[in-house]
Amino acid sequence: MRLFGRKDEHLFRLFQETARYVVRGGEILRSVVYDYTGLDAKLAELSCLEHEADRIIQELIVKLNTSFMLPFDREDAFQLVQKLGSTLDFISGIVDRMILYKAAPPNDTVREMVNLLCQALVEQEKAFAMLDDISKHKEDILKCCSNITTFERCEDSMYRNAMAYLFEHERDPVQVIKYKEVYEHVETAMDYCHDVGELITNICIKYS
Q: Is CATH 1.20.58.220 the classification given to domain 6-207?
């Protein structure tokens, strides 16, 4: 079953394009945590990416409000848009905080959490690329969503352990605040990605 009628094929392409921008945002974030130089330039690149994604999201919202050929809940579509945008917002927020707080170079935990996030974002993009034909790609879509859940659970465990270690071993309260903010933003970005995976899973179940 195709999710979008012929008149809404452009709408689906916009979803795909938005997911691609989110993946690109993750790639910029990963370049930051592995090469902690040129942060202002990387933040500028990420800001431009975010502005372009916002433009596409606004176009998506307009089309969702005017389309008559959505064979799935309009609320699901709006939630997908909102959570994709929020994911990119939090990715940008991570880099922003690293610059504002003048934090120390990211530690191994931050790198591992960002790696898990980037892997989840790639799975999210794969799912969107197949979502226009659920009957053909249902199992592959659900596998992508399952992989996102696996990455989210791994990161959640890593986040909890990192926070516990931070409060137990870090004696500088300023450093506690800096790392806490970074950990929380990576975790929240992953949570939004996981929410998208759950929405896509529900769409597959309802419309296959």
A: yes
